Amino acid sequence: MCGIIAAAAQRDAAPLLIAGLKALEYRGYDSAGLAVQEDQQLRRVRAKGKVREMEALYLADPFAGSTGIAHTRWATHGVPNEENAHPHMIGRVALVHNGIIENHASLRTRLQAKGYAFTSETDTEVMAALIDAHLSKGMCLREAVLATVQELEGAYAIAVISSDEPGRVVGARRGAPLLVGMGIGEHFLGSDAQALIQVTSKIVYLEEGDVVEISRASAQIYTGDGMPVKRAVHESELSADAVERGEYRHYMQKEIFEQPRAVADTLEARIGSGGVLSNIFGVDGEKLLAKVKGLHIIACGTSYHAGMVAKYWIEDYARLPVSVEVASEYRYREAVVPQGTLLIAISQSGETADTLAALRESRRRGYLGTLAICNVPESSVVREADLKLMTRAGPEIGVASTKAFTTQLAALALLTLHLANEQGMDAARYSELCEQLQRLPRAIDEALQIEPQIVQLAERFVHRRHALFLGRGMHHPVALEGSLKLKEISYIHAEAYPAGELKHGPLALVDEDMPVIAVAPNGPLLDKLKSNLQEVRARGGELIVFADKAAHIDGATAGGSILRIDAGGDFIAPAVFTVPLQLLAYHVAVLRGTDVDQPRNLAKSVTVE
Ligand code: G6P
């Protein structure tokens, strides 16, 4: 969502903070700002728009100072403008905040009665005033933050400085991540490891409710009730070049092309000649999975589509009932949980507010256990689930998710095979599916070779305003994912339907201005899909068919363009067919000149409800 970086450094803070914000910009990019302490004064610069716009203002009038805080914002309360940008300054306090304070209105009224005047529409400014009010009672900054967070309802990660306490930054977290970077003779705070990797690889992950005070010399953590506490220092495996764009024009393109490696890494040492290794969920996990009678999957966005594919897989192959639901819905309704049900939370970031809240909510619903499928090892979702299966995609920077999706599919395929084997799947079929899964990295690599054809195809979309995606069975979620990619980054309105549903509504939209993209793998539903395509053709719609090389479908049947992909097998086909759809969205967006990696109004990690 928003990004935080703070420094108690031995050098000028502003350049470090700006570099950190650039690494965090994928989290939000409506506005940015920083504040630095200089001779018992706070200096601040803020700007609407990208970090580089704030940087230009700073460079026009730079200031020194080795202690500071900075923020890149994705607006929740108040439009993106300079007044609402962080840091917020009131009295002697400057503060940056990720999350939402739900009781900000009542706090605001109380503080106004005490004489505080507010210049922004944000909930954050209220927090800054509350800290300042506590400082006025003679508390130090740490005490004032501890007292303030006790009065807050909602979610926050904050970093605060005070003009009265040079060289000190206080941070706190509840419901949004905050990390401490342990440098040599300097310390930092950041909302994720990517912001900190430029300065240190030694990271401490704060726990819920923690408050931390950093200076050059020390980083002292306190629990929410003010007791000093020690937290483990982790060596981050992130390398600075993992977050570099390299030769690629956009992170999204780089991440699409990283998929063969990312999927291979996710499968590595988890599947061998004898099948899926039974210990990939740990000893406890193996025992727990042996008792599973059904599964509930919760997730948001692209991760939700991965869950939808898994429903087909697990029901088809393991014959266990599966329900999939977007986390924001699940958390607010009373789902029926039959005995022996496992809850799976799928999340790239592990910090999506709705997914995390749904996982927490599931605790009181009587599940057999919870499993996180996630890309960030120290994330909240991973730490709060009973079992975990990590995707090994590496950092995903492009807001539109690509390699996270295919690695989630790889992880879910491993789970499917494990469960199918447990449920007594035919041995020959099991080993055939295992072989397919092992071929997946190569199959994705081959699918990527279609890029030159996609570049040509993309030209036909540049001036389109709508597009319809069709798939059947486990390729319906693939169609959904293709349409999500197109709308996210090219701003073309796109919808996806199971092809059999076409005649129940969307066919009314089909005319010569409506491109219809169909995913046509080989399989029992191919003939049904061909009939659906005829329905489109008869209405003059422009058809673009992604067909399996093995599928008997020709240009005449397709009645439009046909692009052939080697799906590599029925099981892995959804992952393989996703690739050309990602490339299509990418190249259409490039031709339309949109901001591919940071599309308007969106954010990578949505840590607010
Ligand atoms: C945001 C991102 C999507 C992502 C979704 C879920 O909407 O823009 O790309 O799929 O959040 O994120 P998660 O980290 O939980 O997978």
UniProtKB/TrEMBL annotation:
Coarse class of the protein's main subcellular location: cytoplasm
Family matches, as InterPro entries: GATase_2_dom (IPR017932), GFAT (IPR005855), GFAT_N (IPR047084), GlmS/AgaS_SIS (IPR035466), GlmS/FrlB_SIS (IPR035490), Ntn_hydrolases_N (IPR029055), SIS_dom (IPR001347), SIS_dom_sf (IPR046348)
Span of domain SIS: 285-425, 457-599
The keyword Membrane is annotated on this UniProt entry: no
EC class (word): transferase
Keyword terms of this UniProt record: Aminotransferase, Cytoplasm, Glutamine amidotransferase, Repeat, Transferase
Classification via SUPFAM superfamilies: N-terminal nucleophile aminohydrolases (Ntn hydrolases) (SSF56235), SIS domain (SSF53697)
PROSITE patterns: GATASE_TYPE_2 (PS51278), SIS (PS51464)
Active-site positions on this chain: 2, 604
GO molecular function, one term: glutamine-fructose-6-phosphate transaminase (isomerizing) activity
Keyword Ligase applies: no
Localisation: Cytoplasm
Domain Glutamine amidotransferase type-2: 2-217
Catalytic activity entry: D-fructose 6-phosphate + L-glutamine = D-glucosamine 6-phosphate + L-glutamate
Enzyme nomenclature, EC number: 2.6.1.16
Pfam families in the cross-refs: GATase_6, SIS
Function: Catalyzes the first step in hexosamine metabolism, converting fructose-6P into glucosamine-6P using glutamine as a nitrogen source.
NCBIfam families: glmS, PRK00331.1
Subunit structure: Homodimer.
Protein name: Glutamine--fructose-6-phosphate aminotransferase [isomerizing]
